[in-house]
Amino acid sequence: MKYYLTTPIYYVNAAPHIGHAYTTFAADLIRRFKRMQGYTVVLTSGTDEHGQKVEKAARAQGKSPKEFTDLISAEFRRTWEKLGIMPDRFRRTTDPRHHRMVQELFRRCKANGYVYKGSYTGQYCTSCELYVTENEPGAPCPDCGRPTETVTEENYFFKLSEFQDRLLELYERNPDFILPETRRNEVIAFVRQGLNDLSITRTSLKWGIPVPGEEKHVFYVWFDALMTYMSAVEGEKVDGEDLWPADLHLIGKEIVRFHAIYWPAFLMAADWPVPKQIFAHGWLLFQEDKMSKSKGNIVRATPIQEVTGVDALRFFLMREIVFGQDGNFSYEALVNRYNSDLANGLGNLASRTLSMIEQYRGGVVPDGREGADPQIAAQAGRTVAAYVAHFDRFEFSRGLELLWSLLGAVDKYLVEQAPWKLIKSESAEDQKRLDATLYTAAEVLRLAAALLAPVIPDSAAKIWSQLGMREPLESVRLQKLAWGQLEPGQKVHRGEPVFPRIKVDEATAKMRELEIQETARQNALLGKKPEAEASETISIDDFSKVELRVAEVVNAERVKGADKLLKLTMDAGEGRPRTLVAGIAEAYEPEELIGKKVVIVANLQPRKLRGIVSEGMVVAATPEKGKPVLVSPMADVPVGTRLT
Ligand code: ME8
Questions:
Q1: What is the distance between the alpha carbons of residues 445 and 407, in angstroms, rounded to a whole number?
Q2: For residue 122, what are the contacts with CB-CB under 8 A and spacing of at least 6?
Q3: Bond prior to 530 in cis (omega within 30° of 0)
Q4: N or C terminus of the chain with fewer C-beta within 10 Å?
């Protein structure tokens, strides 16, 4: 039986970060899980390489789009290899085999009467590569908020409007077509409002797949990119079954419309089978805000891998965040989760159990099947079934939570049985109880290792081999996994602890340091200049010429006729108020500044702004695309204090 799943085809205008890794880790988890259910699984990922943004990014680096995309696409491949999540097919949209398929999709849609030529005037967001209908010129893009551009083009249109009923019927007939339910409801509500036809070619750019017979046109990136899912496995069969249609498209929630509306409509128009399921997960947030390349608040997966190992990150993402919902990422939370659940939880149970088997039973698993604890056995049986059922529904955190309750129950059981006391007893009954206790704990470890193989593959394999299992972990079939299959008589090998404890401060500091280096390396690859380039150096005497002082805002008001300016009355400890005019009115309301201590340049020559004499300058940090942020001392200091 085949199972074909995909991740999005990532844009090459950003280097891989933890958001891309999140989807790809989840896809790898599902791949491993389905294999353990007996499926022949194929996972496709790749890079989305056409379009205006890529063309621009390449030009900015003085490279051809091809040279640029080769570089960044290779970076994605390298990252997946390093993280151990290389997809089975890595497809680039610049691959000629893919071009042929996109052109074929177009021909079929056209032959079936779903494509016509028209002209389009409207707002276009070059960042999202999206036409924004029903919008005023210059209006912000509803997705990213950047201003849109007015464009007029001759385009081919796809008759999306004709698919409303067929799409609604598809969602109706397949209640699990779009998961989770919130996303499904969103899509249905959107389609019910009626669908506009969609422009699927562009004449405004060259870097794209040419439209057959129309030299000036290239395909719209989404008409191109979505087809990767199908072109990556064109004509392929496994176990006598066609790989297409896909069983699952795994995506982030921001691209659900493209996948759940456009994509099935294109396929229906071409008389090709539609995918079976789309799962849209939530966003990784950093300090409650979406991590994204445009916000610059991204972290990368490889520095984390170097400090904690990749399994710690995989576990954190799957255990901490409900798959389908947004979730916060932080280094501290990652290390804390590792220490509590892996080092203290699973790791501690494994090393205790294995060392007791070594010390008390010469390293051989005793035959404790008969006396094994019936309550633990029953809970283990229920846990295996429920865990698999949760994973079948992509409820990974729920499954893991249940497994950890089982581990907790075994911990408690070990304390109750106190094997360290039983070993001292001479009674045969106590020795039997000791056998049963050790067997019970080892058997739970075996089940846990098998269930965790899709989530933390390297660590699960280590525990599996420490238990002395002869059968390879990959050949375990989850349907057959049951209590009591651990063979007495096998020899355990307690090696190094699988999850050594990590010091939070040291580890997070190291990750942050590596993150800075990794960002710099990726930026160099993308041709981006570092945010702060060191300028020429100055002597301390030069610096001492600048008089920076702490001053308190006594009053603040807007400057009439100037949207950006505030007039500030300051106390700089001089026994007289000072007036400063600052370009911060778009970042601060006057009232919120009153009483705040900030830093000013006190010995700047006075100058007149809008008729007001400004005696100095307020110091602010202004990020490249952001608003100014005032600088203020970390602790209270008297006004007039000089900064040295
Ligand atoms: O959208 N949290 O590519 P893309 C969670 N080329 N997941 C995140 C994330 C975050 N903060 N940031 C990114 C494209 N992702 C198109 C797709 S498919 C035919 C074309 C993940 O490089 C998530 O899977 O912008 C999201 O959907 C995807 O990366 C967007 O990648």
A1: 8
A2: 131, 132, 133, 135, 150, 151
A3: no
A4: C
Is residue 295 in a domain?
no
pLDDT at 526: 87
Sign of CA dihedral 397, 403, 406, 407: negative
Does residue 76 form part of some domain? yes
Q: State phi, psi for 152 to the nearest 5 degrees.
A: -125, 125
CATH number for the domain spanning 604: value is: 2.40.50.140
The whole model's pTM is what? 0.86
What angle, 0 to 180 degrees and rounded to 10, lies between the N-to-C axes of helices 18-36 and 310-320?
90
In this structure, the residue with its CA closest to atom 3 of ligand 1 is 10
pLDDT at 297: 76
For residues 455 and 578, state if they share a domain. no
Residue 426 sits in the same domain as residue 557: no
Q: Based on the domain organization, do 105 and 250 belong to the same domain? A: yes
Residue ending a domain, among 480, 496, 531, is 480
- 356 and 217 in one domain? no
Mutate to test the pocket of ligand 1, among 255, 261, 321, 325 (most ligand atoms within 8 A of CB): 255
**Distance (Å) of CA 366 to CA 177, 490, 558:** 49, 8, 82
Residues near 306 by beta carbon (within 8 Å), at least 6 away in sequence: 514
Q: Quote the tokens at residue 496.
A: 């190094």
Q: What are the pLDDT digits (tens) for 94-153?
A: 999 999 999 999 999 999 999 999 987 878 887 776 777 666 777 777 777 788 888 888
Ligand 1 geometric centre to CA of 281 (Å): 10
Question: 158 with 66, same domain?
Answer: yes
Domain that includes residue 28, residue range: 2-281
- What CA–CA distance (Å, rounded) separates 159 from 117? 11
- Quote the CA–CA distance of 629 and 619 in Å, as a whole number: 9
Residue 263 belongs to some domain of the structure: yes
DSSP-assigned letter for residue 325: B
Mutate to test the pocket of ligand 1, among 5, 6, 10, 300 (most ligand atoms within 8 A of CB): 10
587 burial level (CB within 10 Å; 0-12, 13-18, 19+): middle
Q: How many structural domains comprise the chain?
A: 3
* pLDDT over threshold 70, residue 293: no
**In whole angstroms, how far apart are CA 290 and each of 19, 298, 550?**
10, 9, 35
Rounded distance between C-alpha atoms, residue 291 and residue 327, angstroms: 11
Question: d(Cα 274, Cα 471) in Å, to the nearest integer?
Answer: 39
**313: CB partners within 8 A, 6+ apart:** 21, 25, 301, 304, 305, 334
Q: Which residues line ligand 1 (CB under 6 A)?
A: 8-11, 19-20, 22-23, 48, 225-226, 251-252, 254-255, 283-284, 290-292
Residue 511: the pLDDT is 95
Task: Note whether residue 304 is domain-resident.
Answer: no
Q: Are 236 and 4 in contact (CB under 8 A)?
A: no
Nearest Cα neighbor of 469 from 495, 450, 441, 496 is 450
What's the pLDDT at 114?
Answer: 98
Question: Which domain CATH number covers 395?
Answer: 1.10.730.10
The two structure tokens encoding residue 299: 């972290």
263: tokens are: 């994509």
Q: For residue range 410-464, what is the model confidence (pLDDT) as tens digits?
A: 999 999 999 999 999 999 999 999 999 999 999 999 999 999 999 999 999 999 9
> 82 C-alpha to center of ligand 1: Å?
20
Together in a domain, 176 and 246:
yes
CATH at residue 104: 3.40.50.620
Same domain membership, residue 316 and residue 271: no
The answer to whether 49 and 92 have CB atoms below 8 angstroms apart is yes
